[in-house]
């Protein structure tokens, strides 16, 4: 959670006078009554009656500055300096004004004047420290913060400022000490809790971070940045409903700040709600322009995303939305989107590949096969398509060629899957071998390639090669649970007198990659027992990774049955509850 700050955040503490005058009391009354629009007209009317009143001029400068009326703010502070050339806060706030104009050199000049006029004003030192920090003068910034604390050791705000400096510099222990001190000095002010939550967040102590930001919101619920931070924390806790609620609350409080929209767009994208993500991205771009924020890196990122999945004149608009629906298991909607895209871009390879994947997911194997083969027939356009993709826009020829080969590999993988599901295992083996060769040194997704070839070898009763491929799959991705289950099948099938008696590639249930039944053995030899125990251990590993992997229980239950272990029914019934179809003969001795 990177802290982004501007000089404007310091302004609420820069207007101070010895004793509250009638002007200050009246303005405070307007603000307490939630009538900020009355402040400037009141002060301007009073100034007409008292045109040389320094307090009125400074108040007008301050309240214009808070509203980002920089021209008027500068005018009033300059007039105040005419009345009182020794007004250090006037020089300081002129520095703030020029900092907001991004004229940091002039800003620093004014702040240097402010320090010379009143070297005992801690706020002047803090403000100069903030500017030095922005300009990369870390040593100078730290010295200024330290001076402010020496001048006012009981002022919690100064510890907050130094804590922010330490946090941005990665000095988490020092930052934590400063925020703890700020909280001890001012337990009813929100800033110490807010920034301490940032320290905890960086340490991945999300519950502690949440507790602190909740306290900050309890103290002062009107700050949009608090809800943005809480949204970020909830996002890390994968509570996306509360993530969105907090970003939306931040927008409600401050509809003109881009960061809440930007963060919300990313959450919508992660939740596959691309339309909502696009709406927020368009708002971000507009607000950046209106605020004259020229962050080229951020603008490039936003333009890339708008171009990638928000522009319906691009093929990526359709396949990104198709992928989103695919990830939500809305396969029919995904296919409809791919078809819409293919009407506009009839020979688009990527659209065809993704359509094939969706067809394969609903086991329309013939249609999937035809779609993959169509994609393969149009491969001449693939390289150009890939070069248009955002992740390859700056890629060299070698990287583009590698992506091209990997995408061709995916097509052959799809064809192999389709043919295997259609029981054409010899052709499937040829296709998956081609896919693995094309993958080359690209390991991303390669575990699924070896897993598929292992399954094909199982179907061809070549259990040793199957086991070897499943082991390769696991070596590439040790968290690939399904490969452990499949290796268990291969191990068990190699055991004497436990040959597969029934095998179906592509089970009837969605979560069932295949259906397999072993013949039962009246006696279990030591070599057979060793294989089966090793196979059960593989299933145990898979279940340890994913307690809801019904296929692992399905296989482990049968292995236990082969070993005459009495609890085999527990596994088979668990698999059934998790959506797998269990052969009736396996359950005949189990009480449902």
TrEMBL record:
**Is Mitochondrion there in the keyword field?**
no
The Gene Ontology CC terms held by the record are: cell outer membrane
Give the coiled coil ranges. Answer: 362-392
Decide whether keyword Signal is in the record.
no
Q: Please list the residue ranges covered by the TPR repeats.
A: 88-121, 122-155, 190-223, 224-257, 315-348
Q: Give the UniProt keywords, A-Z.
A: Coiled coil, Repeat, TPR repeat
Tell me what this protein is called: Tetratricopeptide repeat-containing protein
Q: What organism is listed for this UniProt entry?
A: Pedobacter xixiisoli
